Amino acid sequence: MSQATILQHLPVGEKVGIAFSGGLDTSAALLWMKQKGARPFAYTANLGQPDESDYDAIPRKAKEYGAEQARLIDCRSQLVREAINAIQSNAFHVTTGGLTYYNTTPLGRAVTGTMLVAAMQEDDVNIWGDGSTYKGND
Predict the structure, then answer these.
(1) Burial (CB count within 10 angstroms: exposed 0-12, middle 13-18, buried 19+), residue 3
(2) Among candidates 111, 124, 108, which has minimal Cα distance to 41?
(3) pLDDT tens-digit profile, the chain (138 residues)
(4) Which phi and psi angles does 105 have, rounded to 5°?
(5) Is 44 helix (H, G, I), strand (E, B) or coil?
(6) How many CA atoms lie within 13 A of 68 on its CB side?
(7) Which residues contact 25 (CB under 8 A, 6 or more apart)?
(8) Could you tell me where the beta strands, DSSP code E, fall in 55-134?
């Protein structure tokens, strides 16, 4: 399968990676993949979000929903490196409502994607399943 292939059907019996937050969308997507015959591998990014009280519980939840393997990937150091680069270059500098701030959401997305794909490669997972919210709020 070439790197540019977009599958039109869920590959039965194949490893399928998913970025797993533990929320409704990714939980439902993971369970659906399992029920349809895929071998889901769940990857959770730890970006140091202050609203997450127990990161270790997220991979356990993925296993409960049918993940063959579930890993927590520590992305904090890479996010810090990227954030420092962004601040030094004045990137993502946004003014709204008269206040100026650094919009770091795109950095988190880039770090998450890069590091989770690297983890998938370590596990010989070559198919990425998307559990994102349709027309998400970001």
Answers:
(1) exposed
(2) 124
(3) 555 566 778 889 999 999 999 999 999 999 999 999 999 999 999 999 888 899 999 999 999 999 999 999 999 999 999 989 888 887 767 777 887 776 777 888 899 999 999 999 999 999 998 777 765 555
(4) -55, -45
(5) strand
(6) 17
(7) 131, 132, 133
(8) 69-74, 93-96, 99-102
Which pTM was predicted? 0.84
Tokens linked to 3:
């790197």
Q: Which domains does the chain have, with CATH numbers?
A: 15-122 (3.40.50.620)
Give DSSP secondary structure letters for 77-88: HHHHHHHHHHHH
Here the tokens at position 128 are 């990425």
E strand intervals along 12-85? 15-19, 39-46, 69-74
